[in-house]
Amino acid sequence: MAVTADKQVDIEADAAAVLEVLADVEGIPSWSPVHKKVEVVDRFDDGKPHHVKMEVSILGINDEQTVEYTWSDNKVIWALVESTQQKAQHGEYTLTPTAKGTHVKFSLTVDPKIPIPGFLVKKGTKTILEAATEGLRQQVLG
Known about the structure:
Layout: E1 3-11, H1 15-23, E2 35-43, E3 49-58, E4 61-71, E5 75-83, E6 86-98, E7 101-112, H2 118-141
Antiparallel strand pairs: 1-7, 2-3, 3-4, 4-5, 5-6, 6-7
Helix pairs in contact: 1-2
């Protein structure tokens, strides 16, 4: 069964600074404890990652996945291409300029291949949301 979660955070930096951190996908393991290894397979002409292989681990479940990124001035979207543990995944960051910086909305939908008990889903979701918002904020403000 697919699980969807989202969280929002305000970052005291402009959207370009936030996008710069998000585009540095190889650096994600330094601010997201879920990500163990990240490797860019190929890039768009502007240098932004297109297909990315990741090794992730959450609550003792290890996954090797490949995702495909789409980039715009105010949004980063990725979709699952293949995975050892998931049937589907869709994630996105939406950036909205504010008077003090950037409002970031993170949304993630994951559909695991095997059933996972609800309490583990809840715990894992909390870990992912914290890394994706507070981890990102701390990395941008670094």
